[in-house]
From TrEMBL:
EC number: 3.1.3.16
SUPFAM superfamilies: PP2C-like
Enzyme class per UniProt: hydrolase
Keyword Cytoplasm: no
Name recorded for this polypeptide: PP2C family protein-serine/threonine phosphatase
Domain PPM-type phosphatase, first and last residues per copy: 169-384
Superkingdom, natural source: Bacteria
Length: 388
């Protein structure tokens, strides 16, 4: 672990844009690594893009059929079959608190590819991930590496709002994904974890393009402001409702589902203010979780909201989808949310929560056939383990 501490210190002292150079030099000195390559997952979670000074210089690799993708999906180091005698190539996931960021690939002498060294280098990957998150305040290098193509301005604003794509704690695992990743409008998710609660919000802003993005920015920040002021869930909805109405006077509104999970008991307080819907997989049974429908935020002045309560049991899986998911229709006109979504949840029940949203959206794409999405589609998946 002394070697790990030395690399961690070097990373902390490095300039934001030189993290990969520093970690490569430290790995060379400590483990005999000959070369290192860092790739980050793109916004669409379809490719791994290389971190390099000039973006798009190196071809991306697929997340679905590549050695790097295998390490990313399994979230454990993958050692490639030996191509050169005496040399090993290892792909290691770069993940921070459950948020899957990318993969670090290293080539090193075979005798250094031991279980102990792999465990130490995996710790270094976690430290690298932490430093990347901090460095993004000061450089665009890692943000640029995440995009396979240019984002629309609305999508740029929406991705900037997001807390991450996944998070894990002993009590739960949570993942989320948005499509179309490079041209999203008003859909958004947000979460915050404290010692006692997980607060999760799913937002569907009215309108398209910049209009929807600006509305959602107002809603998300109003909800954060209320949450950070210590308000109860219903009062958080009320404050955000007042902020939206004050700005748009009822002309625009936003549908939001607010959830607060007690990490000790599994009890959920919920405020259903619009269209995002929730399903629960318990055992092999999928059922819709119905709440009392309340008015979307900003529709009328001084709307009062009431929180409802339900309880999760260890082993439960909860999925929340925006109207772009459950209102998607097949070639025959059947809505996706009626039966197909339940089949998709059951089919992917063995996948970890961070991989479920993309799998469900992939099923939605096949369900719709060749017809492109005509609305944002957002899926959030929560696996509840309970506190031991």
């Amino acid at each position: 672990m002394d070697r790990f501490a030395a690399v961690e210190r070097a990373l902390r002292k490095a300039a934001p844009h030189l993290l990969l150079d520093v970690v490569t030099g430290a790995l060379r000195e400590q483990y005999g690594v000959e070369r290192a390559e860092l790739r980050l997952a793109d916004y669409g979670l379809t490719t791994l893009q290389r971190v390099e000074d000039v973006p798009f210089t190196t071809e991306p690799v697929s997340l679905r059929d590549s050695p790097q993708g295998r390490a990313f999906g399994a979230q454990e180091p993958y050692v490639e079959p030996k191509a050169v005698q005496g040399t090993a190539t290892v792909h290691m996931p770069v993940t921070v608190r459950g948020d899957r960021m990318g993969v670090l690939t290293v080539t090193l002498p075979e005798e250094h590819c031991t279980a102990a060294h792999l465990a130490e280098m995996q710790h270094i990957c976690e430290a690298l991930g932490h430093e990347i998150m901090v460095a993004e305040r000061d450089t665009d290098l890692y943000v640029l590496a995440r995009r396979a193509t240019r984002l629309t301005l609305a999508a740029e604003m929406q991705w900037h709002l997001l807390p991450g794509r996944s998070v894990s704690r002993p009590e739960f695992s949570l993942g989320a994904h948005l499509e179309p990743a490079y041209a999203i409008y008003g859909d958004n998710f947000d979460w915050s974890v404290s010692a006692h609660h997980l607060t999760l919000t799913v937002t569907n802003g009215m309108g398209q393009g910049m209009e929807a993005a600006l509305l959602t920015n107002l809603v998300v920040n109003a909800l954060r402001n209320a949450r950070r002021a210590g308000l109860e869930l219903a009062d958080q909805a009320r404050l955000a409702d007042q902020a939206v109405y004050a700005q748009y006077r009822g002309e625009l509104h936003a549908s939001v589902l607010l959830l607060r999970v007690d990490l000790g008991t599994g009890e959920i307080d919920a405020v259903d203010a619009g269209s995002p819907r929730m399903w629960r997989l318990r055992g092999r049974s999928v059922e819709t979780v119905d709440f009392d429908a309340q008015l979307p935020l900003g529709m009328f002045e001084e709307t009062a909201y009431v929180a409802e309560r339900l309880r999760l049991e260890p082993g439960d899986r909860v999925l929340v989808g925006s109207d772009g998911v459950f209102d998607g229709v097949s070639r025959t006109g059947e809505r996706y949310g009626e039966r197909a979504l339940a089949r998709s949840m059951s089919a992917h029940r063995l996948l970890p929560a961070p991989q479920v949203p993309q799998a469900v959206l992939r099923d939605l794409g096949e369900y719709r056939g060749s017809r492109p999405l005509d609305d944002d589609a957002l899926v959030v998946c929560l696996d509840w383990f309970g506190r031991q």
